[in-house]
Specification:
Layout lengths: L1 H7 L1 H18 L3 H22 L6 H26 L6 H20 L6 H27 L2 H25 L1
Length: 171
């Protein structure tokens, strides 16, 4: 059961995480809800990489193991801010940027490595869409346009979901 959950869970967790982030942006979710969510996400990442380490030794899975390993301290950084608020540093923003950019780069990197051409295209295009969303989010933040930021989050989520959905259903 745990193996099946590890193999298919990300297809629900990735879009679910982006929907939660959109919810947080549009409703102004309180810090306690955000803290609990980030603690759960950190625990899931640690558990996933710990249980899947040996299976993620080479190729595409090694790239994704690296994303998860880098994502753990990135997500834990948000926990730190939400729990302690150290000097008002923009740690939530760093976490969000990290989770926009790391998977986008990994999708673009792994696309050419995939054995099925259409999967490579889906991963590469998904990575490009996610990267475009990240850039758009930055523009929305810089210009103080909340609707643009929310639309950008949806675009990031779409791009990342494309890649993970194809991986789960095809492999």
């Amino acid at each position: 059961m745990f193996r099946r959950l590890r193999e298919t869970g990300p297809v629900l967790l990735v879009p679910g995480a982006w929907l939660f982030i959109i919810f947080a942006h549009t409703t102004g979710a309180n810090e306690q809800v955000l803290l609990i969510a980030h603690v759960i996400i950190t625990a899931l990442l640690v558990s996933f990489v710990g249980l899947s380490w040996a299976e993620m030794e080479t190729g595409v899975l090694r790239v994704w193991r690296t994303v998860i390993l880098l994502g753990i301290p990135i997500t834990a950084t948000a926990v730190l801010e939400l729990w302690l608020d150290p000097m008002g540093l923009p740690l939530l923003e760093i976490t969000l940027a990290g989770w926009m950019l790391l998977p986008a780069v990994a999708l673009a990197r792994t696309g050419p490595m995939l054995p099925i051409a259409v999967s490579g295209v889906i991963a590469t295009v998904g990575g490009g869409i996610a990267m475009f969303g990240a850039i758009l989010y930055g523009a929305g933040w810089y210009l103080s346009v909340p609707r643009l930021m929310v639309a950008a989050l949806a675009i990031v989520g779409l791009g990342q979901t494309m890649g993970i959905a194809d991986a789960v259903y095809r492999y």
